[in-house]
Records
---
Amino acid sequence: MIKPANWNNIEAKKFEGFPTLPPGAHICKITSAQWTKSKSGNDMLMLECDIAQGDFKGFYEKSQYPPKAYITLGETESSIANFKANIQDIEKCNEGYRFDFANPEVLCGKLFVGVFGEEEYLNKNGDIKTNLKLQEIRNYDDWNNGIKTPEKKLYVPNQTGGYSPSVYSPINQMLDGTSASGQFVSAPTDGDLPF
């Protein structure tokens, strides 16, 4: 091993960890959009995004794990109403844009207000860890009126060692990635995330 040429000019500094995105509302840009299916067979619009403005612009640019939103379009009125509300929030943030069911990829580059919250999970080693998940899609009017940062979702083991849906999620998350209220929910992540 050869000593670096600038060794004596560099100040020693311990690694302080990777930067973290703070919970709360951030202006986001959609980087990927496609239709997929839930485990129960419902249509779901899967969106990937990155931070579009501010100090954290491009935060997920090099990440293997960009935030994802799964917006379920079921057959119930409440599911359709929730899907429509999320789409209308995106439309409100992008003047003149109207969602095209046949071409969801046109959403790429569109902006929205993403509300991120901390969620605890159990990793492969049995340790409780915390990561940040995209929990809500909102619009600029909500942003201007102030959006409350979500409370941290605490890990509560149920009888099988997983999440207890009645405690884990305020929207009563179901195992198939949809929810009783029709809200989109973030997909669980296995293992530690690199950010």
Note: The first strand starts at residue 24 and ends at 37.
---
Amino acid sequence: MGMEVAGDPNFPKDISCVQVLNERKQKFEGPEKAVLTDLMEFIKVHDPDVILFPYADTWVPLIVKQARRYGLELTFSRSVRLKQMASKYLPPLRYSSAMRSKYIARGAIPAESNATSPPW
């Protein structure tokens, strides 16, 4: 499954349009709460193994934050929990584009009930 949020990932604002590419294109548009509600329900019903998501490092934390704000069930993870990867396991990424540097300190990954720390 592929997913794309309309808007500039460098300046994320409200999430008013999300396009999902599954067997066919589906677009969720409207107020942010309605878009997120429909998106979470769609993911829950289709239960994808993988979601390909351009600029996920920008959009997923915003989607998670806003979904929690609206009291929505997070359906990105089958275990229902997401955990932040500690920066000691994932060093910050730094990349430059058009004279701008961007740092990504950590990412969100599904939390497993019997998860342990990485061996390194």
Note: Confidence is low (pLDDT under 50) at residues 87-91.
---
Amino acid sequence: MSQRKRIWGWFFYDWACQPFYTLMLTFFFAPYFATVAADYFIASGMETEVSKAKAQTMWSICLSASGLFIGISAPILGAIADTSGRRMPWIYVFSVMLILGAMGTWVGVPDGSNLTLMLYFFALGYIGTEFALIFTNAQLTTLGNQGEIGKISGISQERSIDVMITRLRQKIELNPKNPKYLQTIRGSGYVLWIE
């Protein structure tokens, strides 16, 4: 496989894993879980504030336990990733964990009857994502020399910024292809001109 294909493969894998953090950890699943859990506890007779606190406690225990497991295991897996020549089997295993965990959170029902199962699936996906990241980042050293690694690993973030700028221009510019307000300064970045 060519070096260019390997770099793009790394880029697309890294890019594809990011929605787990955005959607599951931050914007959608975490608030969904907190709401469903609080409603479940309220329906079981708990006071509103106590039920909200209990829901947040369940979520924080899940994150803490997952984070502790990742923190203890990551150095060991990092050493394996750095010394073993075969990283792809590990990436496959952890990708399956990520996929099963993300899919498993769909068992969550609005009545909150399976809160613990929802958390187990979330933790499986979260751990799978973090462990896959260890092995994909270990591949960076095989994709370029020391001076190129930063550029390679930054490709996904650069493209994300470009997409956001393009969408923003579509909203604020009369002619997004010839922007007047949000301009690109080659070698420097973007400038917002306000009249």
Note: The longest strand covers residues 182-185.
---
Amino acid sequence: MGNFGTIRGQPRGTPRSAVDAGGAARRSERALGTERAPRGAKSATAGGSLAGVRSDTAVRAAAAVEGLRHSAAALRPSNAAASGAATGRRSVTPLDLGAEVRAALLDYHRDLIATNPAGVRDKLAKIAASPFAFFRGTADLFYHDLTGTDAALPTVLCDGDVHPENFGVIVMNDGTLAFALNDFDEAAAAPFSWDLKRGATAFALAARECPYGADGEAYARAFIESYFAALACIAQGKKPELVRDPPKVITTLLADAESKERTKFLKKRVDLDSGQFIPSAEIEPHHELVRVFEKVVLAHWRDSLPKGAVSDDVKVLDVARKFDSGTASVGMDRYYVHARIGGKSFILEVKEERRSVMAPHLGDVAARGSEAERVVAAERKLIDGGDRFYGATDYDGKSFIVRERSPHKLGVELATLSADELRDYARACGAALAMAHGLAGGKGKVATQILRATKTREIVDETVRFAGREADRVSAQYDCFATQWRAAQAAGRDWLSAA
């Protein structure tokens, strides 16, 4: 059915899912844990921050503190929570909440603190910028609230981290451009509503931080209603209206991405004469890694790709560590590789992957294969003919995805959007999420299941209410964390070890 209209006016060619269809599809299903059981077998499945943070969020946040159900115990899923049992509510003071948020953050980042404490500090500094930034970097807190919920609703391959900055322009496998989801690190099979609730909450928070002081719930509603409108079209075998005729905010983004020049993009990062990366605050060249990346890391990557996806002629010109990318993934290893593939220069991004943040809240089901293979399998199912370079590899005992760092990859600057543009953008993202869920199920099957299992008006209204409540909850959590963080910084103390 396709993603949002490409602007080069050419057909995308054979979708990647059709390339090496038998083997690639089976490998994807194994990696995601969604491989079909033999006929007759029983199922084993179970039940950039924005400028201008508004001070009035503190009012909503203060109201949200009373009755919050985050205790130190509740922040770790119990057997009762996992089975969907109701959690008792108690009165939580700001002091209690601050201690509990701190305990949860330290617990979630425990392994990374042991191996890369400086990276954790960088991440915490980033999420201290605003409630929306905090939300982006603390998905584990969000999913604690969802553990055991919505078990009766259809399960789909969820993206796992739906928010306004995880949509954007991507390069398809035939070189054309499309607007779609662009991050799959947290993908896992879960109730479809989990993606919808995270996206709606994200739009509520992002809208509250916009310069015009928007009503966040109105933008959450635009996102949700667009999702269900698109699902209805997909169930009927039709392209959603927003796919046939994207709003101006999307066509402008696509046109801007198309105008980017590869040579200009490369010159900012690479000395084209030597082929080596230009050192900067974010790029640290490691020329000594060229041989191992060419002979081992990228060799494994090529093996993970569908047959014929890239030329066998791959030469690594330089390797660099990349810092300060993303929010949730800050502190994990990331490399840039300047490679010549089939005689043409590309920058490949090699990004460390860990288990999905949803996994502990879904019974901690392990991926079949490496975590990078899980992410790659999700990209291939959720995007129709996506990045031809998207593959998996391993290095230094860790799992990595590989993808092109394309000059045409572009996202919106949320703080620059008008109220109407943000509403149109929310609608576009809702339709894009519906397209991804629909593609993962194939031929409208998932769309039909979701529509049959829900009453659209009721679930829209309830999800809007959820988004408002959760945005208040996140704001309360953020206020407590940010107060602690800034106090520690002012006193010259390390937040990771401060009492």
Note: The radius of gyration is 22 Å.
